[in-house]
Task: structure prediction
Amino acid sequence: AQSVTQPDIHITVSEGASLELRCNYSYGATPYLFWYVQSPGQGLQLLLKYFSGDTLVQGIKGFEAEFKRSQSSFNLRKPSVHWSDAAEYFCAVGSSNTGKLIFGQGTTLQVKP
Amino acid sequence: DTEVTQTPKHLVMGMTNKKSLKCEQHMGHRAMYWYKQKAKKPPELMFVYSYEKLSINESVPSRFSPECPNSSLLNLHLHALQPEDSALYLCASSQDGALARETQYFGPGTRLLVL
Result:
């Protein structure tokens, strides 16, 4: 069965520091991968997605993610974090069997001034 | 315009009340979704409508009743809810149907409190 693992439940970084959020997936073929961000009490906003092609994907708000098939990973990165990036981040894979989005458990990002 | 709107933003209801949540999108999308989200957890899929027909019901209790009057509108009718149903209810839509490659666009949610 397809699954998504976000190993880090909570991450704290200083403003201006670089960020990497980890995501590992379990899926046989090329997956459809997504990163969403959710600010407190809000809906989910798509940051970026990967279907095929260039394995380094650029998204909104200065985020990027790299698909590594050999490691079954799709880690999210940002070179310099802003205080407004504090939020919950969800990695997800689209299930080709059902069309459902399978979410990881999420990573809470806290940004220190 | 990639906006999905939801009303109301907040809702407080008693266990004997009947209320409805409303979701609207004007992107021409043909799939619409209801999710339930508890604090610090990922969204849990409840229902999917594809081309105005219910295609997925994730074994949701009958006190939740979805309705899709047209391709732009999605309602969730609530009746005799339990306190454990208190959560953020999210609506989403996608372009062509519930397909793996489809990007789902989420609304801001309705925060529901059941007393």
Summary: The two ends of chain B are 36 Å apart (CA to CA). Chain B is about 0% helix and 55% strand. The mean pLDDT of chain B is 94.
